[in-house]
């Protein structure tokens, strides 16, 4: 039996797509209304973050850094609940996600085929519809998943008068909702193409993941007049080493084993808000870039098992 195309290893440089995705994410973030912030400084002084530094900002990864689990997983659960896709799609998406988990790598062409499947689900839907649904899904599945420790770190930057951005592979619409609900400045996320407010089923560039995140941060810093050596970045994943390496204050939050090792060798600060069995439960990765639908497929499988 011939191997399925998306199971066949292939390599291709994604540098140009990473730059395009990063620039698109920065453009979308700057176009969104910014969250209102207090002008008052924090009551308690601290060495870092530096109070009143207009050239400093903080960049937070979302999944397992700010939020327990993956945003696209929670968003996908909401879409499945609202019948955005069917059981036949469930099987295909579950197999694609299983490949990413078992392979431990993210080949660009494999990810492209998986994303095409996921994007076909939202193709033809209006952006405003997905935004409205996203607000509901945040209340249903995400609000109770925010890490208090990481939230406090973000608030410290806000209290110091600094801008705070989420940087995530989740759809920019979802990321923007989460940032607004948390009172953050805004969000950099994966940009799906839409024409006249309707999704075309294509991405602009590629998912905001790995090198693309670093490109987005650089583009945003240039547009906002930030000095990266004075900025901070926070993430749980070794995939975000390019982003963490850009800034003068990198933090490993709830780190995976590779990031923990890298952080120790580099002298980066570590924070871990997980404990014992709970850490194992929430540390299961979602396939970055597969999209909300693949996350929903995995969620639906889990729900069906519980029912049985």
Tag the structure with descriptive keywords.
308 residues; 12 helices; 8 strands; disordered C terminus
Give the averaged pLDDT, no decimals: 77
Number of DSSP E strands: 8
N-to-C series of helices and strands: HEHHHHHEHEEEHEHEHEHH
Spatially, the strands of the biggest sheet line up as 3-2-1-6-7-8
Bin the strand percentage: 5-15%
Helix content: 40-55%
Q: DSSP helix count?
A: 12
Uncertain ranges? 1-14, 36-46, 277-308
Structural class: alpha/beta
- Whole-number radius of gyration? 19 Å
Q: Major sheet, described briefly?
A: 6 strands, parallel
Global geometry: globular
Ends apart, CA distance between termini: 32 Å
Secondary structure topology:
Blueprint: H1 15-31, E1 57-60, H2 71-81, H3 87-103, H4 108-122, H5 127-142, H6 148-159, E2 163-171, H7 172-181, E3 186-190, E4 192-195, E5 198-203, H8 211-224, E6 232-235, H9 241-244, E7 249-253, H10 257-266, E8 269-271, H11 276-282, H12 292-307
Parallel strand pairs: 1-2, 1-6, 2-3, 6-7, 7-8
Antiparallel strand pairs: 4-5
Helix pairs in contact: 1-8, 2-5, 2-12, 3-4, 3-12, 5-7
Can you walk through the features of this model?
The protein is of the alpha/beta class and 308 residues long. The chain has helices at residues 15-31, 71-81, 87-103, 108-122, 127-142, 148-159, 172-181, 211-224, 241-244, 257-266, 276-282, 292-307; strands spanning 57-60, 163-171, 186-190, 192-195, 198-203, 232-235, 249-253, 269-271. It has a six-stranded parallel β-sheet, sandwiched between helices. The relative contact order is 0.22. The model is unreliable at 1-14, 36-46 and 277-308 (pLDDT under 50).
């Amino acid at each position: 039996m011939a191997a399925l195309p998306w199971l066949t290893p292939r390599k291709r440089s994604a540098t140009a797509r990473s730059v395009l995705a990063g620039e698109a994410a920065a453009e979308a973030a700057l176009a969104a209304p910014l969250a209102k912030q207090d002008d008052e400084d924090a009551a308690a002084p601290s060495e870092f973050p530096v109070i009143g530094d207009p050239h400093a900002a903080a960049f937070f990864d979302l999944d397992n850094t700010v939020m327990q689990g993956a945003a696209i997983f929670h968003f996908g659960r909401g879409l499945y609940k609202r019948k955005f896709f069917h059981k036949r799609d469930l099987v295909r998406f579950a197999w694609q996600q299983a490949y990413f988990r078992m392979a431990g790598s993210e080949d660009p062409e494999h990810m492209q085929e998986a994303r095409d499947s996921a994007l076909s689900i939202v193709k033809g839907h209006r952006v405003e519809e997905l935004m409205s649904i996203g607000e509901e899904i945040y209340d249903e599945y995400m609000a109770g998943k925010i890490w208090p420790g990481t939230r406090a770190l973000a608030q410290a930057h806000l209290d110091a008068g600094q801008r705070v951005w989420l940087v995530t592979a989740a759809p920019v619409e979802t990321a923007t909702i989460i940032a607004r609900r948390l009172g953050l400045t805004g969000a950099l996320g994966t940009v799906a193409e839409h024409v006249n407010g309707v999704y075309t089923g294509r991405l602009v560039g590629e998912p905001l993941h790995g090198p693309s995140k670093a490109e987005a941060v650089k583009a945003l810093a240039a547009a906002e007049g930030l000095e990266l050596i004075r900025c901070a970045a926070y993430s749980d994943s070794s995939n975000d080493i390019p982003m963490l390496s850009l800034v003068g204050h990198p933090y490993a939050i709830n780190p995976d084993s590779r990031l923990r090792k890298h952080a120790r060798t580099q002298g980066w600060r570590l924070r871990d808000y997980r404990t014992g069995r709970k850490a194992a439960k929430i540390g299961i990765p979602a396939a970055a870039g597969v999209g909300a639908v693949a996350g929903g497929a995995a969620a639906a499988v889990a729900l069906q098992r519980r029912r049985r």
